[in-house]
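User: For my dataset I need records formatted as: sequence, then structure tokens, nothing else. Please produce one.
Assistant:
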Amino acid sequence: MGRREELLDAAIELVGTRGMHGLTHRTLDAAAGLPAGSASNHFRTRAALLDAVVERFAARERANWEELALRTAPTTPQELARALAEFAKESTGPHRTLTMARYAILAEAGTHPPLRPQLTATGARVNAWATAWFRLAGSTDPDRDAPIIMNHWTGLVLHQLAMPDPAFEPYPQIAALVTAVLASGAL
């Protein structure tokens, strides 16, 4: 891993633990254990830094999704619900900081519109993956079903991040929603 990736991973850690206000060139240098000015040498402006952070967190999240996809290929609604529940647990457990960074950056896009096109592009790749899984699991309209369920998944994960429940078990809720949504397409 090169210095640029070290800086970006440190930036994700900062955003995921301190929020967007915690990310400055100076705090990034300190968090990465690099000399003052290192971050600004790689990312001249805050906008350039934010663009690079979005690119890096998207690549890391894509790798997490791909790892999950290697472990499972859901072909039933129950298998799909299991995979989504597992990913929710990973996103709020071992990948918590990365997920917190994603939510902080999404909120930042609300007031910083230049982030939106890049977030839309990275989201489209995840949406294509999710749509394929929904199709495999039996959805007759995955373009309709995937956003319904994934938006619920996003809210479920956000709630767990904001108010952690040590007994977090998303499977029953996700399974009920997947079953209902996929069954409604057959009506």
